[in-house]
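When time allows, look over one protein, given below as sequence and tokens. The question is which stretches look regular and which look disordered:
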Amino acid sequence: MSAIEDFLADAKRRMDKSIEATHHEFNSIRTGRASPALLDRISIDYYGTATPLKSLASIAAPEARLLTVQPFDPGSLKAIERAIQESDLGLVPSNDGKLIRLPIPALTEERRKELTKVVRHTGEESKVAVRNVRRDANDHAKRMLKDKDITEDEERRLQDDVQKLTDRTIAKIDKLVQAKEAEVLAV
């Protein structure tokens, strides 16, 4: 029985990774508030190497609608400013020579609707990943049955357990999507 339990634990672990990835993606989607996680996806060409912004600077949110970026190396200030301008965040950095200030403008209704589409798309990608885990698990169960490692009843029970796990995980992703949509649409 331990092989089946290990098998289910592995499927659960892989599905939980999808939830974590969704959560991480949602953190980088801009709402109306300043959050250092907004800048997680930005990488800077630092001496010929793509380097994550959080490795080159300290990022803070001193106010609800302001982010500050203070580079560890003042020479990287211009490269950081350029990378933020070229990102898809729509933020306009202001540079005082030591610190970059990023005022977070209020979202327009149109931008909110675009962001809800991004949220739904991210949620759907996560659900697809979960369904792929389910498919892999079911294929593995069929192989175990074919190799006579488990009985038909055990295979059926295993597939039922995997389906229940899938349903629970997709429900969690749906809750994350609903919460993020509500956050984006809140004025």
